[in-house]
Design brief:
The protein is of the alpha+beta class and 418 residues long. The strands form two sheets. The protein has a four-stranded mixed β-sheet with strand order 1-4-5-8. A four-stranded antiparallel β-sheet has the order 2-3-7-6, with no helix packed on it. Bound molecules: flavin-adenine dinucleotide (FAD). The site of flavin-adenine dinucleotide has 19 residues, from strand 1 and helix 13.
């Protein structure tokens, strides 16, 4: 597809024609995903030079809708597609894009995000994991924490300090770290809801090839902001439904892959507070007028939040990069989750604390109550989102910072690593 942008009808016709010639529900998943990737229809909003069609987000959605209505399996879900790929497309070298993007589209590689450290979450730029150059490699030592999916990841998006004499935002480099090596140790953590999706990751002289730097040396902060902006704009897209696929070998293998992936994220719907369950609960317990008010409030807020997500999508369709609207969406999501959990808790009473198959909704209410706090923390806390909205959208004065302009070496920190 070249020249002027095609019409939606042209996109639909082209996808339909391509699927008619190539979709075979009995193909092995990897073979199918390879064909889809090479055709440009796996992620048609990507540039034409990099396995896409260069379509606007709106036209890409037309293409995806057509693929879905055909019952054809699409690209995988997860951090590789949602975070690593857009960061590579925006900041990666031709060599990195050439080596890594196709394997992301085929689902061969899972990725994790190695940003947060024990002493540095909100203050991410204060990180102290270090990388030192040694010939054709970088040698990495330090620790990350809260790393979702690190156990199964082939690569990590790693932020490490490479210049201790520069101010804190300017001495960080963004690396692609191969996870399967002796210098990387992954230890799972158990959460209060009983799941174990996070890990601690320890680096003891782990090795990164020199070519695996994303963007410029010491300018990793720019690429990190791209990853974070995509993370905040994610909403529920991690949980894309896998139904509607035409039955056959490809769908069976894709379902198995999705089931494996969703083991890490099994509690994510509960983390969102399950507003979808409120009406069922209300009927079950014959909700009082006050409880009905709580429910109406959550549902109204949820609807407004969805319109805001649509607004953000339109902005992307118009070619604008993700911005503070991601922070607004994230804040709305955690607020709705808390209000929904409160409504569930009010209706369930003490029974809402019970877990197991004989409890209310198989223990889902209890899981909501202990999972909802995660939404206000993951991807940047509510307080940090409010600062972003205040500074970047409302033009309020920036939060004062005592340490942004001095060499990092002189910054007082409670972290180890130097
Ligand atoms: C479900 C989940 C998944 C996650 N997955 C990953 C992952 O895959 N990879 C990864 O790298 N990290 C991940 N994280 C970590 C997450 O990004 C951090 O937990 C988050 O950024 C907060 O950092 P912190 O935990 O160090 O809290 P802190 O930064 O120590 O914050 C503690 C409290 O202080 C407040 N605070 C801190 N600074 C300010 C300020 N300047 N102004 C106002 N208030 C402030 C915070 O809002 C918070 O209430 C995940 C977290 C969760 C909950």
């Amino acid at each position: 597809m070249s020249g002027a942008a095609p019409s939606p009808a042209e996109v639909t016709a082209e996808v339909r024609g391509w699927l008619g010639a190539n979709w075979d529900p009995e193909r092995p998943l990897l073979e199918w995903r390879g064909l889809l990737a090479d055709s440009g229809w796996a992620s048609p909003q990507w540039p034409a030079d990099w396995l896409g069609k260069g379509l606007s987000a709106e036209l890409a959605r037309v293409a995806t809708d057509e693929r879905q209505s055909h019952g054809a399996v699409g690209p995988p879900i997860g951090s590789a597609m949602n975070l690593a790929a857009p960061t590579l497309l925006a900041h990666g070298s031709a060599d990195l894009k050439g080596r890594l993007l196709r394997r992301i589209l085929t689902g061969e590689d899972h990725w994790c995000q190695l940003f947060s450290e024990p002493g540095n979450g909100s203050d991410l730029a204060g990180l102290t994991t270090r990388a030192d150059r040694d010939g054709d490699e970088w040698v990495v030592s330090g620790q990350k924490v809260w790393t979702t999916g690190a156990k199964t990841a082939a690569f990590g998006m790693l932020l490490a300090r490479t210049d201790w004499d520069a101010p804190k935002h300017r001495g960080i480099t963004y690396f692609i770290l191969p996870m399967d090596q002796p210098g990387v140790e992954v230890r799972p953590l158990r959460q209060m809801n009983g799941h174990a999706s996070f890990n601690e990751v320890f680096f003891t002289e782990a090795r990164v090839p020199a070519d695996n730097v994303v963007g410029e040396l010491n300018d990793g902060w720019s690429a990190a902001l791209t990853t974070l902006a995509h993370e905040r704009g994610l909403g529920g897209s991690r949980l894309v439904a896998s139904d509607g696929w035409q039955k056959g070998r490809t769908a069976t293998e894709a379902m198995a892959e999705a089931a494996e992936h969703s083991r890490t994220y099994a509690w994510y719907p509960q983390r969102a507070g399950r507003p979808d369950l409120l009406a069922t609960m209300a009927r079950q317990v014959d909700a009082s007028p006050v409880e009905r008010q709580l429910i109406a409030d959550v549902i109204a807020r949820n609807r407004v939040a969805n319109w805001n997500v649509e607004r953000a999508r339109s902005a992307r369709a118009a070619g604008r990069a993700p911005g503070p609207e991601g922070s607004v969406a994230k804040l709305a999501g955690s607020d709705i989750a808390r209000r929904s959990a409160h409504a569930h808790g009010t209706m369930a009473g003490a029974a809402g604390m019970l877990t197991g198959p004989t409890s209310m909704h198989d223990g889902v209410i209890a899981e909501i109550l202990v999972s909802v706090p995660a939404g206000s923390i993951a991807g940047g806390t509510d307080e940090i989102q409010r600062s972003i909205v205040g500074e970047r959208s409302l033009g309020l004065p920036r939060e004062p910072s005592a340490d942004s302009h001095v060499p990092f070496r002189e910054v007082r920190t409670n972290s180890t690593g130097r």
